[in-house]
Protein: MFS transporter
Organism: Geosporobacter ferrireducens
Amino acid sequence: MQQLDQNKVKKLMGYRWTVWGVLVLSYVIVFFHRLAVGVVREDLVRAFDISGTTFAHLGSTYFYAYMLMQIPSGILADSLGARMTVTVGTLVAGIGSIIFGFAPTITIAFLGRLLVGLGVSVVFIAILKVQSQWFKESEFGTMSGITSFVGNLGGMFAQTPLALLAAAITWRYSFAAIGVISLGIAVLSYMIVRNEPKDMGLPSIAEIEGKAPAQGIGKPDLMKSLGTVITNWKTWPSFIMFTGFFGAYVSLTGTWGRSYMVDVYGLSKVAAANYMTAAVLGMAIGSFVIGKVSDTLRRRKLPMLVFGAIYVTCWAILVFLRGGQPPAAMMMPLMFVLGFTCPTFVLGWACAKEINPPQIAGISTSVVNTGGFLGAAILPPVMGNVFDRFGGQLLPVELYQKAFLYCFIAAVLGYLATFLVQETYCRNIYKG
C-alpha cells in the first residue's frame, strides 16, 4: 500500500471538523424553524385571525416542503455536492424567514414558511453525505448523534429564548433576525465547506483506513440508485419508525405542547415553554447517547428496541395517566425522557446507509428521512381538526387527551416497525 503523507492525514483529520462545524450551524437554523411556530402560536393567530387547523397547516407547510424535498436532497447531495446544496438552501431559508417575519397577510406567511421549508430541507442529508466522505464508517452513528445534538440547540432556542425574544422585539423581528443570520451562514458554507477530502488534495478516509479506494464508480446513475433504495424492503422499517416517532414528537414540541401546558396546567407562556425546552434538551442529549451506545455495542436493532420501548411508554403515561393529566411534578422529567428516547430514529439513518450501496449514502438516507417529515406534516393538522371540532365541548384535559391519542398511536406503529429492522452490526451489508 502506498505510504500516505502524514501531514495531509493530519490536515484532513483537523479540517473535517471545520467542514462539519459550518454545516451544523445551518442545521441549528433547521431545528429553530422546525419548532418555532408553536411558541408564537397566539401571536400568529392574533396577527392573521386564523383557526387552529389553519395554524397547524401553517406549521406543517415547513414539513410538507421538507418531506417532498428529501429524495431530491439526496440526489443533490450525491450529484451537486454538499457545498453548493447547503449554500443555496440556507440562502433560500434566510429569505423565507425574512418574508415570514414581515408577512402582511396569511398567504405571504405561508409563502415564507414554504421557502424556509424548501431551503432547510437539503441541509441534513448533505451533512450525512459529508460525514460519509470525511469520517470513518465506525464513526457514522456517533457523528449522526452529535449532529442531531447540536441541531437540537436550535430547537431549544425556539422554546423559552424565542418566547423571551418575541416578547422583547416582537415575533416579526425575531424571524427576520434569524433570516439575516441564515444569509451569513450561507456565505460561510460556500467559503469553507468542501465535498470530500480530494477537493483539497487530501487522501480519502478509505485510504487512511487501508481500504482500496473505489475505482471506476464515478457518479452513480441517480434514478437507478433511487430505484435500488426504494425496492429494498430493508429500507422501509426505518422509514416507518421515523414517521411515527418524529411525527408524534414534533406535534408535541413544535405545535401543541406549550398550549397543553398553558391550558391544562395553567402555566404562563414562558413557563410552559420551559417544559418543551426539557423535551428538546432530552432529544439533543439522547441523539448523542443513542448513537454512541449503538457504535460502542456494534449493534443497531437492540438499542432501537430498548430506547423505543421507553419512548412509547412515555406517550402512554402522557395520554392515559390520570385521564391525560399526569401529576405536575412528573411533567418535567417526563418531557425530558420522552425527548431523550425519541431519537432512536438516528439509528435508522445509519441503517439506511448500511443496507444500501455505500456510494449512494445521500439517496438512501434521504428516503428514510422522508418518513419523519411525513409524520410531522400529517399529525399536527389532524390534531388541529380535533381542537376545532371539539373545542368548547370538552374540558381542556379531555380535548388534549383526544388529540394526543393520535401521537400515541403513531409512536406505537413506529415501534412495531423496529422489529423488522435488519441488524447491520454497524457495517455495510449490502449485497447487490
